[in-house]
Write a structure and sequence with these properties.
Blueprint (H helix, E strand, L loop, with lengths): L1 H19 L12 E5 L2 H8 L16 H7 L3 E5 L8 H4 L4 H11 L5
Parallel strand pairs: 1-2
Length: about 110
């Protein structure tokens, strides 16, 4: 569910940037969107076109991401949970992890 929502948001942002771009500053709207995920099960479900008995409870509308992966509009890449930069903005973390993620984001102390 979260991967599908991230996919929808990324596509919306890409279309928005395409509309905003001008000839002076063109946006490459042909490029694929890379989404980093830490849930290998959801990634496998998005990539594998076969339905198994354990996936039949998932609503068809949530297989939207499978279509986008197949068309190569979206590329899924695995990123371990400990390396997710978004955790800095969404979770309470220990100081050392905050410092590491802050530096990885490119935000430095003044």
């Amino acid at each position: 569910m979260a991967l599908t929502q991230a996919c929808k948001e990324a596509i919306w942002v890409k279309r928005f940037l395409t509309e905003l771009s001008t000839t002076a500053t063109p946006y490459n709207c042909e490029a694929s969107i890379t989404i980093f995920a830490d849930n290998q099960g959801s990634m496998a479900l998005a990539i594998n076109p076969e339905f198994d008995s354990w996936t039949k409870h998932i609503c068809i509308q949530h297989h939207f991401i499978r279509e986008k992966v197949t068309s190569q509009e979206i590329i899924l890449e695995y990123l371990p949970t400990g390396d997710m930069l978004a955790d800095l903005l969404t979770k309470p973390l220990a100081r050392d992890k905050v410092e590491r993620l802050r530096k990885d984001m490119g935000v430095y102390e003044v």
